[in-house]
């Protein structure tokens, strides 16, 4: 085996004739040596390269043209259409610059706006603003109730379904519930637009709309809305509105079928204790209540 | 498009490629078939294929393509052709000092036997053997040229040597 390898090496010129004879002295290498020697003398035909090339050119070959594949506009349009759909949908999915905050029943949330204005959302409320356009226009939309501490700057607008509030820099509370709209000014001045009528509020003044009618409200002296201190305060407010607020703050359903819900209520209730809150609403109105799970029934105790 | 792929389509580039490789590839074809005219035909046909398909061939692989094409063209033709090879004239004998007519006769006889033995080799063995002998190529270079493994080259070389030796010695006895 190694002899065979050595012969291969010998023919490749790796080892010399003397060397292989020494390694395998028993072997007669004369035939191999001879055939190796004379095989080298075999004549390879000399090619006149230039003549061969000229000969080759005389063949007059036809060259296959590279295939040209025409752009199929239909498929391009299809791809483009898919791309357009994907890009627009992804724009609305990922580049939606509207910021939205919402609170559930019995929950409040503090929202800081890009200009350091502060919004405190009361329960069951929703706030939406456009982050991108905020620098140009300070506009936000509100459903529910929120207290605003607005940093000084350009006009700050709060839009609600009922009316718009415009300020420059101030503190005010907006309450927009079903059939009830109230703006209270705590600092600076607030301009309320309701049905194209503009009203300017100064601190301590309120603007109230009940069932679509502007209703007068007494002045107040507090520095902050009472709900920030876990309390809801009412001044000459119809009972149904108080009931609605109770339902939102305590996640209960109040049935008040046999009583006059249009009677006015002045006072407040706490957000921390359901029984005390119910008592503070019912007792001044000479009412009583029954709790049955989430259901609360109001009734006049005189009737019983 | 001026990518290197299509350089072969340029006439000047193709011409230099042709001139560079025509001798080597012709030798290769000749060792395979042992026929001068036939080998040149294979070579010209192979170059024609490259010329016609220039746009499809990567020019870095053009040389391999050329040799492979010659190989394939050869395989497509009738395999048992008569091998017509000759020795170069006026080459010295092994023992340059011994010029006795007997010695010269013996050597000429040996050369004839060797030639007939080479004709009897398979085309694969012959091409490896002659590439090694005439061109002095290493087994690794032959393997690269034929696009086969070096082990295969060595196997074919060993086989060729065994056959040649046996044939030459047998006739001798």
Question: What report would you give on this structure?
Answer:
The complex is a heterodimer of chains A (304) and B (173). With 304 residues, chain A is α+β, with helices and mostly antiparallel strands. Chain A folds into three domains: 1-64, no CATH class; 98-215, Jelly Rolls (Sandwich); 231-299, Phage tail protein beta-alpha-beta fold (3-Layer(bab) Sandwich), CATH 3.55.50. Chain A has seven helices and 18 strands. In chain A, the strands form three sheets. In chain A, strands 1, 2, 3, 4, 5, 6, 7, 8, 9, 10, 11, 12 and 13 form a 13-stranded mixed beta sheet that branches. In chain A, strands 15-18-17 form a three-stranded mixed beta sheet, with helices on one face. Chain A is elongated, with a radius of gyration of 47 Å. The mean pLDDT of chain A is 83. Chain B is an all-alpha fold. Chain B folds into two domains: 4-76, Orthogonal Bundle (Rna Polymerase Sigma Factor, Chain: A), CATH 1.10.1740; 101-172, Winged helix-like DNA-binding domain superfamily/Winged helix DNA-binding domain (Arc Repressor Mutant, subunit A, Orthogonal Bundle), CATH 1.10.10.10. Chain B has helices at residues 11-33, 36-52, 62-76, 101-120, 123-133, 139-146, 150-172. Chain B is elongated and about 60 Å long.
